[in-house]
Amino acid sequence: MMNWTIDPTFYPSARLAMDAPPEKLAYVVAFNPKALSSDHSTKERGDVLAVIDVDPDSKSYSQILSLLEMPYSGDELHHYGWNACSSALCPNALYPQLERRYLIVPGLRSSRIYIIDTKPDPKFPSISKIIEPETLMKRTGYSRPHTVHCGPDGIYISALGNNKGEGPGGIFVMDHFSFEPLGMWEIDRGPQYYAYDFWWHINQDILLSSEWGTPPMIENGVVGSLLMDGQYGHSLHVWDLRKRKHLKALDLGNEYQMALEVRPAHDPRKLYGFLGVVISRKDLSASVWLWFKEKNDWQIKKVIEIPALKANPEALPSLLQPFGMVPPLVTDIDLSLDDKYLYVSCWGTGELHKYDVSDPFHPVLEGCIKIGGIVARTPHPKAPQKPLLGGPQMVEISRDGKRIYLTNSLYWAWDEQFYPAGIEGWLVKIKAESFELEKDFFVEFPGFRPHQVRLQGGDSSTDSFCFP
Amino acid sequence: MSIESLGYYLGIGIFHGLNPAMGWLFAVALALQHNSFRWIIRSTVALLTGHFLSVGSYFAFFLLLGKWASLQWIKWMAVVALFSFAFYWLVRSRHPKWVGMNVGVADLIYWSFLMASAHGAGLMLLVGSSLCSRSFAFWIQPTGITAQLFIPPMIHTLGYFLAVISIATIVYMSDLLKMLYRKWINFDLLWSAALFAAGTWIALN
């Protein structure tokens, strides 16, 4: 608490954060699929937080340094974030004594939240506190915690469902210091019902939230009939961050299903951002949308469309066989800190696309990396004989924009549907400039499926900056 | 007014203005956000208004208290208040989000008033006033209740203004944030120390 100087990983602006030294460690959460699929007659192992050596000069480069196993099984660790970040330098609520130290790791299935301390030894983190599901549901009225963002006045976390496991989902706030859940964030939620991801234009006092579906629509896999009816989320919600009030719903139309990842420009002067949409029920394509403020009004527009590819039905899982096509399934997108490049994960076709978005209205496709995929099963250069399952999923860009990390698992019930043969977990690293896979970096997770990557000291989807 | 108390009020004002949590950083952020130097001026005026109102209310409270309570009482109340704020900023230094980032002049006045009040800024003025300090203030004090009420907070706010406007301008003009945030020190600790010192001074006099 009594630091004399500020945390060196806090930066006033994204521009300055790009000068940060390269990360040496990566944290990856991975869940144990056995704990979810078994009949629970035997106690299965818990999910893990893995620490990976990403320092090329180290002897243990590209190896797993430690696995911190959770004391419970079946949490399904998914997204997570830091307790504090550069938003602590926002002048309206300056917190010079915070430090980036704890990882706030929710179990998406169990609604349990682990507070994990990375300080005494960053290579061997430890659990310092557990928020039990009952406490979370009682205090906030929510369950299924998802996205974690470090705000200037507290830790904001989205949740897919309410305390009865239905809708509406929303956002709750957790105390910066005690890590106690404080309560529901919304004062007036308007028409918002589904929840998923969220972020903000911090200097505009604007929060944006996206839509997946309620827990029953998700937890046992995608429900084909709901998808074909256009029942999954297809709106982006604009909120007043200060008054905690819904301002406007930007509806994409129910052809577009599952509006997931929200990536606003990092420069607080820019009033736009990108939203990834998983699938179109018309032609199974995926899309990326640009929201922007024009004439004092928030609007949204499709700027990228990625078509589905023809495929031999025999090579497809039963869900996709009637279509004879493999959908791209854009399940994650990530924007570099200079707001110049957008990386788009196509989990279905096994591709990672790189777009130059210097002109956000007209993205230009600059490159494509193939790895995994439902049909393609493209191997990694380090093991060229081994077909890979799963595809580019959570993508994380280093602060300087030079390195990209990628994992392959989405969500247990959905993994089973789209990759019925099962997914062996892996993490790969990409050189951003030449846009190619790093040949000697291929980390496997035997028995586990990795999801989100967090880089030591911050990355391109953690910090918010109040200075341009 | 003696040169010592004049210097004291002005000096404490400058010290308050130096604290990034007291407004200059906010002025820089707003000017950068709007890409306009006018926002440095606009925010500084709003910030000093809020600061003056807060410091002035604290000062007036103790001054008017003098009509009913003895000097001894006021002295010990001020000491207790100073020590309480000092402990607070030592142990629980939080800066709540009273306003957002998309603010106008009224929000800034409100924010600055709350920040100065929560930091006990006005209490530090008592050291230099005849209410609590014999050492240098007794010789010549402004005469008349109005002068007593307004002059110290006004001189103080002038010091605050000079610090805020010059730091905000320099940082905005020369893109100094990069260097500054590396050299940043925890002002809450410094602030806490200043409150302790002020409390001790009054107690010993």
Report helical residue fraction of chain A.
Answer: under 10%
Q: What is the C-alpha radius of gyration of chain A, as a whole number of Å?
A: 20 Å
Instruction: Give the fraction of residues assigned to helices of chain B.
Output: over 70%
Number of continuous helical runs of chain B: 8
| Count of strand segments of chain A | 30
Mean pLDDT of chain A: 96
Helix vs. strand class of chain A: mainly beta
Keywords (chain B): Membrane, Transmembrane, Transmembrane helix
Transmembrane segments (chain B): 6-32, 39-61, 73-91, 103-129, 149-172, 184-204
What does this structure look like?
- The complex is a heterodimer of chains A (468) and B (205).
- With 468 residues, chain A is mainly beta.
- Chain A is 7% helix and 39% strand.
- In chain A, strands 3-2-1-30 form a four-stranded antiparallel beta sheet, with no helix packed on it. Chain A has a four-stranded antiparallel beta sheet with strand order 4-5-6-7.
- The model of chain A has no long low-confidence stretch (mean pLDDT 96).
- Chain B has 205 residues and is mainly α.
- Chain B has one domain (3-204).
- Helix content of chain B is 71%, strand content 0%.
- Chain B has helices spanning 3-18, 24-34, 38-65, 71-91, 105-118, 145-174, 177-183, 187-204.
- Chain B is globular and about 55 Å long.
- The model of chain B is unreliable at 135-140 (pLDDT under 50).
- The A-B interface holds A 2-6, 8, 10-13, 16, 89-97, 152-153, 176-177, 202-206, 241-242, 268-269, 466-468 and B 20-21, 23, 25-26, 28-29, 32-33, 35, 93-103, 111, 177-178, 181-182, 184-189.
Kindly summarize this structure in a few lines.
Chain A has helices spanning 14-17, 33-37, 133-140, 215-218, 224-228, 412-418, and strands spanning 25-31, 48-53, 64-69, 81-82, 102-106, 113-117, 126-131, 142-150, 155-162, 170-174, 181-184, 198-201, 206-209, 235-240, 245-251, 256-264, 272-280, 286-294, 297-306, 309-310, 325-326, 330-335, 341-346, 351-356, 364-370, 395-397, 403-407, 425-431, 436-445, 449-455.
